Amino acid sequence: MGDFKLTTVEEFEAATERLLETGKKVGADAWQYRVKNQTPHCKFGEQGICCRICSMGPCRITPKAPRGICGCDVHGIVARNYLKFTAGGAATHSDHGREICHTLYCTDPNGAYKVKDPEKLIRIAKEWGVETEGKDIYDLAHEMALKALEEYGKPFGNQNFIKRTPQHTQDLWKAQEVAPRAIDREVSSSLHMTHMGCSSKPEALIRQSLRVGLADGWGGSMAGTEFSDVLFGTPKPIDTEANLGVMNAENVNIVVHGHDPSLSEMVCEYADDPEMIAYAKEMGAKGITVSGVCCTSNEVAMRRGIPMAGNFLQQENVVLTGACEAIVVDVQCIFPALGPLSKCFHTKFITTSPIAQMPDSEFIQFSPENADENAKAIVKLAIENFKNRKPELVHIPDMKQKATVGYSLEAIVKVLDGVTNSQVDTLGTTKPLIECITSGVLRGAVAMVGCNNPKVRPDTAHIELMKKLIANDIIVVASGCSAQAAAKAGLMDKRAKDLCGAGLKRVCELADIPPVLHMGSCVDISRMMNLVAELAKDSGLNISQLPVVGCAPEWMSEKAVSIGNYVVATGIDTFLGVDPYVSGSSEVAELLTGGIRDWVEAAYTVETDIEKLVDKMIDRIEEKRAAIGI
Ligand code: MSK
Q1: What mean pLDDT value characterizes the chain?
Q2: Secondary structure element (H or E) that encloses residue 317, with its range
Q3: Is the distance from the beta carbon of residue 458 to the nearest atom of ligand 1 less than 6 Å?
Q4: All structural domains of the chain with their residue ranges
Q5: In CATH, what is the architecture of 403-627?
Q6: Bridge partners of 239?
Q7: Do 244-393 and 69-232 fall under one CATH topology?
Q8: What residues pair up with 362 in beta bridges, in sequence order?
């Protein structure tokens, strides 16, 4: 292993403490303090038993008041809240996907956005039955963008992408009435069902939660992922670095944060422009460093090797370094706290989307039409802000790890197949991976996803679970802030193979991969869905029979619940480390952890003890192996 060593959570925390000291000097607030002010949390909210969907209430369920004013019982209230939460997440992911489709519609060979992966565009077009022969690639891009946008509002039929699943899954979804229709319809139907005086039957509300989740995973998120690849290139393995030490005290530091790669791609483009680099030097810097936070970071890391400064709960830390000239955000997972915090430093907090507007920010509206001009303006603004740095406040923790990222489904198939797949209209095969699993060299796979949450010691659950899984020959695919936790710790360094069991170590050596594979951002969990669908079709098994589980040990957002619902509804048992506000209803909790298995062949496990959580996942994988006789 040489001098390779994982970075520990204790080391992360010591670095954060040092940054909080700087923060105190300038009167900065931080989430660590706000958590203290917000705890203990409201018990009614925590259990999901508060209803405020009409103005007769709010109604709170207690032993003395077992029904709301309208007569709804606790089970109806909890299930309604759960569906609303899911619909919020599905809407958010799907709207991100919609923006990507719009950007695809704006592609132009001479414009800011081009088609970078024409083969993938042709492959999807053929899959959707669109004629490709003799068509100009930009005409095809515009036609496919329109078709993709129609998926949001089509009056009849189901999502196109569900045809990627095995026939068994499609039949099951149809029989259980969860096959996703138009994306916007599923979100609207969910909000209609949860309106005062509509559904209060837990079964109906939970069934719709699965359906709206599927509209996200096999609809909006999948469109986001697939057409981002067409626009910006399908990720391939690429080396990068992770943690705050990727920021450079001598350079202009621009941090991109959020989810939509349309903005960050352009910012990266201009930060690389010799004219901009020369300007930065003129302003006294040695160059320009772009790094990222959250899923925007995952997007540009996977395609460009842009380093990852941190994940969700590190977003304030990048400003606390005192060396951040601009934090440029698009949508989702952005703390409004960045506004007041940036005012304590010289940092420019730049919001760019009408969807995510915040006080104390500079709003530079970004659109495909003005992308060039505005990305350049943002980079210039950051450069010109370099002179305003206060050197006495600058401290960048000397902490980073190497990581190899960029494992799209196409890349995984290619590295594990060991041969180049030169055909443009087929994906290749997952058979080598299946052989590793059936022979027992690998026991199975875990999809680790999701956020950080102060309810869990940040990053600990992600890292500790991954360490134990790989030691047990279980390969991990990761996305979102979970992937960044792994990268920061060093688990995406190929040298981490020495932490694996003998079987996984051998696979890592032969395929030259790290034991934890970075599959991308939140919307890219759709890549994981495509992977399991391919594994099922190539093995002749149902998805639910594969020794594969999903896990979100530190999740926090509505999007994460939507993800959980589509992962479970796809037939993958899903393990959560944070309760989704359903403990107030025995009926809803039972449905989610058991009853839905009769509908979709998988269910949730909620376990807040990390040790128990990982053991339960390993047991589940072994049960699945035993059930199929491997
Ligand atoms: S960014 S949704 S904190 S994974 Fe996608 Fe991270 Fe969760 Fe946001």
Answers
A1: 96
A2: helix 315-320
A3: no
A4: 69-232, 244-393, 403-627
A5: 3-Layer(aba) Sandwich (3.40)
A6: 404
A7: no
A8: 350
Gap from CA of 560 to ligand 1 centroid (Å): 8
Give the closest residue (by CA) to ligand 1 atom 3.
Answer: 451
**Beta strand 238-242 pairing with 474-479:** unpaired
CA distance 607 to 555: 12
Q: How far apart are CA 88 and CA 556, in angstroms?
A: 13
Cα 450 to ligand 1 centroid, rounded to whole Å: 6
Q: What amino acid occupies position 477?
A: V
Ligand 1 center–CA 419 separation, angstroms: 34
> What DSSP designation does 238 have?
E
**Residue of 86, 313, 557, 558 best suited for mutating to test ligand 1, as the one with most atoms within 8 Å of CB:** 557
Nearest-CA residue for ligand 1 atom 7 is 451
- pTM for this predicted structure: 0.96
Among 95, 256, 312, which residue has the most ligand 1 atoms within 8 Å of its CB, making it the best to mutate? 312
Position 429 confidence tier, pLDDT thresholds 50, 70, 90: confident
Place of tokens 């915040």: 358
What is residue 1's predicted lDDT score, i.e. its pLDDT? 56
What's the distance, Cα to Cα, between the start and end of the chain in Å?
32
Helix 221-232 and helix 118-127: axis angle, to 10°? Answer: 140
Give the nearest ligand 1 atom to 521 CA: 5
Of 1.20.1270.30, 3.40.50.150, 3.40.50.9100, 1.20.1070.10, the CATH number of 69-232 is 1.20.1270.30
Indicate whether 426 pLDDT > 80: no
Contact 538, 166 (CB under 8 A): no
Domain covering 244-393 assigned CATH 3.10.350.10 in the classification: no
pLDDT tens figures, 43-61: 999 999 999 999 999 999 9
The answer to whether 438 touches 547, Cβ cutoff 8 Å, is no
Residue 196, token pair as written in the block: 């005062």
